[in-house]
Amino acid sequence: MPQPIFIRNVLLNETRTNILIENHHFVAIGPEAAPSSGATVIDGSRLAAFPTFANMHTHAAMNLFRGYANDLPLMSWLNDWIWPKEKNLNDDIVYWGTRLACTEMILSGTTAFSDMYFHIPAAAKAAADMGIRCTLGITAFGDCAELTEESIERTLQAIQPYSHLVQLALAPHAIYTVSNQGLRHSAELSHKYNLLYHIHMSETPGEVSDCLRNHGCRPYQLLEQLGVLDLTEGRFSGAHSLHLDDNEIALLGRHRATVVHNPCSNLKLGSGHFFRFAELKEAGVNITLGTDGCSSSNNLDMIDAAKFMSYLQKGVRQDPTVLPAHELLQVATRNGFNTLGINAGSLHVGALADIMLVNTDNIAFVPNNDTLANLLYAAHGDCVDTVICHGRILMQHRHIDTLDETLTQSRRAAAQLLS
Ligand SMILES: [Zn+2]
After folding, report:
1. Cα of 284 to ligand 1 centre, how many Å?
2. pTM of the full predicted structure?
């Protein structure tokens, strides 16, 4: 059990308060809250408290590809640059790539991520060693023949030691890389094992037109026809979901689906810019935010992603009232944790103790007329001073114990991956 933590005199919702953390949870929040015996005390007088971010679409170990192969269209980027090098992946490379990603996430206030990659046990160990939460999707292609009851049970067993932080998901890559049979087969397993179904959907206009030509319907209609949306009801997470028509939005709402907007990746890869936030919200779809992998975004800073999302909505709609800051924060925090079934993403008694403390001496908070607006519209991830996940301090005053080792080993692993 971690030591209790007492945060004294911190700014929360524009008022000064105290926060007590015990047994991985918030146990008291308010001016009357007092430290319990043995508590680590954090002086919050120059800090503001916010829930941490849930980055809902990542390929964490792809941090090792950062800066490699830029300014290319999605299909050529994948076929000619990324997939050939991914043949070099092994446990060691994925472990250090994931640790590098987790380090970057901690430095910018993220304590949970929904991942889609390979070598799941190595990634699980990396996240657990760094102390953050993740839901790791087994990536599958073609008929998804590698997804079997046996392989799922073996992977569940392998990540069991980290189950306080790590969950398993299934991640059929996309409708253009997975057969209809594979989409259905993975949905049946998601249903049977109650695992999140995480898939790239409707990312480019080309994906939609190919689907219309090959299957006579749009991508989400294909999933509906295959029974995937029924089988994964309440456990479906569609990354990107950028090019949608009204009928697809209604399907997503009816099936209580989650979509993950990745504005920086969509813009950098030239995939599109009009995420239909208002219509998706109206239909009751759970809207979350992600960065995508570091070779297409090119960082894991959720404040960057949030700002891009907000400004795109306001600009495209020509309406500055769309997606106000408090709603943007919820998209980037609580909505994601809800999808992952984790009781975090908002600061209240009884919730799991995931919290970030932002340095209000950072230039973006001077003057501090509105702490939330300063966080989302003025600051960058480096305003985060302290991060606590599951009741444990992972970073304080921007210090992470393992930083030097992670940087050295990640540089070595990146050279091996790209050799
Ligand atoms: Zn992706």
Report:
1. 24
2. 0.98
